[in-house]
Design brief:
Blueprint lengths: L27 E3 L4 E7 L9 E7 L4 E7 L4 E8 L1 E5 L4 E5 L3 E4 L5 E5 L5 E8 L5 H13 L5 H10 L3 E2 L1
Antiparallel strand pairs: 1-2, 2-3, 3-10, 4-9, 4-11, 5-8, 5-10, 6-7, 6-9
């Protein structure tokens, strides 16, 4: 393994870092469960390198069922509480400090079924525009709008989401 080809070619560095304070308001609230999503880094803000979200789940059950992606890897790091993680073979209780990496095509899922709040980091590479997917899901939950099977299929296809 070696370093990738350089992406920055100027002779000297530049001031270009971005700080997001820990107390920044969430970017998105998902459904009745009260999950709050913080877009720490998006594909847009990382020049497509990665996306990193802090996912803070309320005590009500919720999360993503078994699925896979064709274009991105996804990793999960449990910050607090208990998060059910699907490894492609079975559901396991992820606890503080547990880490799950899923390469492209790897079946996975996550849920909070503990009855207590839980939080985790979700990292995906490269930095696909996942925000739009979660924002559409949040809108569906908020408005109560129901999609047809064909509309779900189109939504999933558009966002590299293949349900298992």
């Amino acid at each position: 393994m070696s370093y990738p080809d350089p992406r920055y070619l100027d002779k000297s560095g530049e001031i270009s870092s971005v700080l997001r304070p820990a107390d920044a308001q969430p970017d998105l609230t998902m459904g009745a469960g009260g999950t709050q999503v913080h877009y720490l880094g998006t594909g847009g803000s990382t020049n497509g390198a990665f996306g990193l979200y802090r996912w803070e789940m309320g005590p009500k059950p919720g999360g993503a069922g078994a699925h896979f992606h064709r274009t991105i890897t996804e990793s999960f790091y449990v910050l607090s509480g208990t998060v059910r993680l699907y490894t492609g073979e079975k559901w396991v209780d992820g606890r503080t400090g547990d880490f799950l990496h899923v390469p492209e095509g790897g079946i996975h899922g996550f849920r909070n079924e503990s009855g207590e709040p839980a939080s985790m980091l979700i990292l995906f590479t490269p930095g696909a525009p996942r925000e739009a997917y979660f924002e559409e899901l949040a809108d569906l939950a908020t408005t109560g709008r129901r999609l047809t099977a064909e509309e779900w299929a189109e939504l999933y296809l558009r966002h590299d989401q293949y349900m298992v």
